[in-house]
Write a structure and sequence with these properties.
The chain has 500 residues and is α/β, with parallel strands linked by helices. Helices cover 39% and strands 20% of the residues. The strands form six sheets. Strands 14-17-18-13-12-19-20 form a seven-stranded mixed sheet, with helices on both faces. The protein has a six-stranded mixed sheet with strand order 9-8-7-10-11-21, with helices on both faces. The termini are far apart.
Length: 500
């Protein structure tokens, strides 16, 4: 009897033979930058150069936007029936799943996350997002207003036209899919500008889209630097909408460019400094500790919604910190290409130095370094920082107020729930928050009081494409995911018909 033997991929061997696509994708053709410029794309795993990527500038953005506009005006995609767009987007999702191992390897090499996460989270979530919007688009109905017998008022949603999408490096494919899915489902053209720190999977997604039947020009990819390609896209006079995910500082610059150009619509999903509040009545500290550790150490802490502030009732502080430290010790930084690794490399040297600077600031401001705080695996040539926990943190400290975007947890204590709420809301951000309690009334009351776009109760980072994601205050505005995302990429039109 024959037995089928399966072996795990040798990711290091595959990495040696991988040849990433390094050019812009404009009007269905791979192109070098108009001026011939490139930038080095290096892996934070070991510092190796992965590719010399086309560094697009204003001329390339002009070309991409013009192609996207021409495709939109011709109706190559916008005028296709929703059911046909659905079929193509489903093929797009199928193509992503067929390329799972290639895309996962690109993601891990490019930004340093563990291959296990790229395989289990990033690629499946990207395909799921596109599939969900494909299935949704032929089930979204327009409206008839209740105007009376002598008139008929139709309220219809129409695609905006050309959408510029600027996406970050921490979840390159997922963040791109959160834009691509609703933008294309609604019938728009898109010009995608990936982060220069992680551009490779975006270019490959553009190729897969073409193979699935997305018409040339409808999905353009312009890799480049933020201050050149990103700035040109945000300020472009023929872009109808700019969708941005990234830092709050860059989000403000994008909003200014949009206002000073053609007053294009803007949606921003920016930074966060999310509070994770644990009340004394919650009975399962082991569960809280594991969720709290993963809330800050998953994806190396490079998450806008990371639970970077752990607010603990003083009566359970010692017991909970002991449990959090135990979980953190199970997550030492390791080789991202090893399937056993749960904590990988930070995205690059600049981000590593930024995180280490915040760790130094925490020490100097008087916080107690309970664990971690060091750069490790230095002989690898890569960018690795230990899971780090600060105790005795006060609200005025930088590590309690500013977004670090790394594996650094700040622990603060409180006596009363109202005190916890004051601390939680006393930052400029408002992306996510969590409350752990066994009392349903307390859960409802605190969830309403927390100034955040997403509030988790007795969990952290629970996620589904069906629910909206976005923030309050300087975490931005507009929502990704769910049907609400379609609102950002469509125009409402009222058509009034006189029947008298």
């Amino acid at each position: 009897m024959n037995t089928l033997k399966t072996t795990a991929p040798d990711w290091h061997a595959r990495a040696k033979t991988l040849r990433p696509v390094d050019r812009a994708l404009i009007d269905g053709t791979l192109r070098t930058a108009a001026g011939g410029e490139t930038f080095d794309c290096t892996s934070p795993i070991d510092g190796r150069r992965l590719a010399q990527v086309a560094s697009c500038g204003a001329a390339d953005v002009d070309l991409a936007v013009a192609g996207a506009r021409a495709a939109f005006e011709r109706g190559d995609w916008a005028n296709q029936p929703p059911a046909q767009r659905k079929r193509v987007l489903l093929r797009f999702a199928d193509g992503i799943e067929a390329a799972t191992e290639e895309l996962a390897l690109l993601e891990t090499l490019d930004m340093g996350k563990p291959i296990r996460d790229s395989l289990a989270v990033d690629v499946p979530s990207t395909a799921r997002c596109l599939r969900w919007y494909a299935e949704a688009i032929d089930k979204v109905y327009d409206e008839v207003a209740p105007t009376g017998q002598e008139s008929l008022a139709l309220v219809t949603r129409e695609p905006m036209g050309v959408v510029g999408a600027i996406v970050p490096w921490n979840f390159p494919m997922i963040m791109a899919a959160w834009k691509i899915g609703p933008v294309l489902a609604a019938g728009n053209s898109i010009v995608l500008k990936p982060s220069e720190k992680s551009p490779l999977s975006a270019i490959r997604l553009g190729q897969i889209a073409l193979e699935a039947g997305i018409p040339p020009g409808v999905f353009q990819v312009v890799p480049g630097l933020g201050h050149t390609a990103g700035a040109a896209l945000a300020a472009h006079m023929d872009v109808d909408c700019i969708a941005f995910t990234g830092s709050t500082a860059t989000g403000k610059a994008v909003m200014q460019a949009a206002a000073q150009s053609n007053l294009k619509r803007v949606s921003l999903e920016c930074g966060g400094k999310s509070p994770n509040i644990v009340l004394a009545d919650y009975p399962d500290l082991e569960r809280v500790a594991r969720a709290s550790a993963y809330a800050i150490f998953f994806n190396q802490g490079e998450m806008c919604s990371a639970g970077s502030r752990l607010l603990v009732h003083e009566s359970i502080r010692d017991a909970l910190l002991e449990q959090v430290a135990r979980v953190a010790r199970e997550m030492p930084p390791g080789d991202p290409l090893d399937p056993a690794t749960t904590l990988g490399a930070l995205v690059d040297e600049a981000q590593t130095l930024r995180v280490l600077d915040y760790i130094d600031a925490g020490r100097h401001e008087g916080a107690h370094l309970a664990m971690g705080g060091r750069r490790v695996r230095t002989d690898s040539g890569g960018c690795y920082v230990e899971p780090t926990v600060f105790d005795g943190v006060r609200q005025q400290m930088r590590i309690a107020r500013e977004e670090i975007f790394g594996p650094v947890l700040s622990v603060l204590t409180f006596r009363e729930t109202d005190e916890a709420l004051r601390i939680a809301n006393d930052v400029s951000y408002g992306l996510a928050a969590a409350i752990w309690t066994r009392d349903l009334r307390t859960a409802h009351r605190t969830a309403r009081a927390l100034r955040a776009g997403v509030v988790y109760v007795n969990c952290y980072d629970a996620d589904d494409i069906t629910v909206p994601f976005g923030g309050y205050r300087q975490s931005g505005f507009g929502r990704d995911k769910s049907l609400h995302a379609l609102e950002k990429y469509t125009e409402l039109k009222t058509t009034w018909i006189d029947l008298s």
